[in-house]
């Protein structure tokens, strides 16, 4: 027979479990698009308009660019550090992109979505499919350039890549654009403020309330 005090404990545990399990998780928003299409600027614009939105910082083995800082733009890692993260099963996904490795750390997203907050992952098309397979409710948005010529001009103008890297990024862009039909939404970045507004509208409609 269980005592009244024990009944209280059982009830407390039951109610606590209900509260825990009924907590709604935050939405995962995946933003992909060719290098140079303006994802970074768009994300900054979206963050200004949706204050509750967070962004995951990815890990990468590529070198930082002049204006980039560790833990702000990326967790810049050596190959050894990246291997360690793979071995400790710390990534929700990771991929080879342009001969370097990029990955989303579980720690970057778990706490945020468990607190019911929404998070943007800015990742490539392979990573997007891996996340979609694990978390089918993720919202996939692709940002496309108006034309390939336009993308090429943007990559040249930003002066962050050498000629060979620009060519590789344009080749990858063609591959990525061929995967556009795997995305829930496509936004063409012809005019930056319009692109930001379109994405804010999409997210306001598609993110589940919590
Ligand atoms: P960049 O070198 O221009 O910063 O990024 C190159 C590509 O890597 C972009 O297409 C970007 O979306 C992708 N990328 C950045 N972080 C991640 C990540 O965590 N996982 C995957 N799969 N791709 C990423």
Structure description:
The radius of gyration is 20 Å and the shape is globular. The protein is built from eight helices and nine strands. The longest helix has 19 residues, at 4-22. The strands form two sheets. It has a five-stranded parallel beta sheet with strand order 2-7-1-8-9, with helices on both faces. It has a four-stranded mixed beta sheet with strand order 4-3-6-5. Mean pLDDT is 89; it is low at 12-22. β5 (91-97) and β6 (100-105) form a beta hairpin. 47% of the residues lie in helices and 18% in strands. The protein starts with a helix and ends with a helix. It has one domain: 3-Layer(aba) Sandwich (Rossmann fold). The protein is α/β, with parallel strands linked by helices. The chain has helices at 4-22, 39-49, 79-87, 106-114, 125-134, 148-158, 163-177, 192-206; strands at residues 28-32, 54-55, 59-60, 75-76, 91-97, 100-105, 119-122, 139-144, 185-188. The structure holds guanosine-5'-monophosphate. Guanosine-5'-monophosphate is lined by residues 32, 35, 58, 62, 93, 95, 97, 102-104, 122-124, 126-127.
List the helices and strands and how they pair.
Elements: H1 4-22, E1 28-32, H2 39-49, E2 54-55, E3 59-60, E4 75-76, H3 79-87, E5 91-97, E6 100-105, H4 106-114, E7 119-122, H5 125-134, E8 139-144, H6 148-158, H7 163-177, E9 185-188, H8 192-206
Parallel strand pairs: 1-7, 1-8, 2-7, 3-4, 8-9
Antiparallel strand pairs: 3-6, 5-6
Helix pairs in contact: 2-8, 6-7
The chain binds guanosine-5'-monophosphate.
Guanosine-5'-monophosphate is lined by residues 32, 35, 58, 62, 93, 95, 97, 102-104, 122-124, 126-127.
